[in-house]
């Protein structure tokens, strides 16, 4: 079933909806940008084996393209901003960034503004963008998208290990909730309940091998998490001696260490079953005074500037990365005479995993910093 998201932006211009035209995918997106924001968008769609182009808005500036490796790659989400522009006397789309099933992120198209509203156009996990809708006239006033479930085929990875024992194949399920692994003299002898799969709203158990020792479990937070890879070893006899599972959340199981040989059904990176898990937005911690701020979405953080005041942190500023380009964020707070301390990351090999801090009331005031 198709899912319609948005549109986001202004309410002027004429409505358009490419999703009702029967397209099955898109090959290329061309975005027009001028000093005010996004003035148009042109999309090359596929329908019945031929390509058709739709354009919305007016070309008044530079046209920039973002081409997909069609049909293997598709757009999974759009991030952007919108704000009021005096030239048009209305709200228009200011910036657009596209993310794909291959993990690519387009450059940011358009023109940023200090006072703008962030938005994200994203379908349910496992869906691909098949059409845009929104409003346009002299510029791109608003944009949304229609998503449809991806039908990418599953990939069957051959088993690794020996040739003894009886062949087994659990087939294809919607997900995995739990894996239980048993040992016998250092070798893996049992994959229990082994595999607790998900089929719709039903849990299905499969077990293989012979239980000798009490099995150890590795639980997966289905449907928000899924197994992305299995690593292991086997000896000269072909017995599997160790197994390690990795997940979409970056978790790694403890090393479990036969069903004689082990293989798995994997969905390719662009399949519906391995769609990226949306990143949660964590609420700000501290006081409730001052003006609210939100730097929005970027690919990475490169550097952080922190300014110290008499009573705590008085200033903070981030340098971000978008499409391998450095983007300086706005400064927040007020810089004191003490200046700032810098924390630079080894981009792209290093990234922030957590932030720790403390806040309290300022002496002689009700404010929390």
Automatic annotation (TrEMBL):
State the InterPro entries in the record. Answer: Jacalin-like_lectin_dom, Jacalin-like_lectin_dom_plant, Jacalin-like_lectin_dom_sf
Jacalin-type lectin domain location is 2-149, 154-266, 279-369
Q: Which domain of life does the protein's organism represent?
A: Eukaryota
Residues in a coiled coil are: none
Q: Which Gene3D superfamilies match?
A: Jacalin-like lectin domain
Alphabetical list of SUPFAM superfamilies matching this protein: Mannose-binding lectins
GO MF, any single term: carbohydrate binding
Q: Which UniProt key words apply to this protein?
A: Lectin
The family classification in the record reads: Belongs to the jacalin lectin family.
Q: What is this protein called?
A: Jacalin-type lectin domain-containing protein
Q: Which organism is it from?
A: Brassica oleracea
Taxonomic lineage of this organism?
Answer: Eukaryota, Viridiplantae, Streptophyta, Embryophyta, Tracheophyta
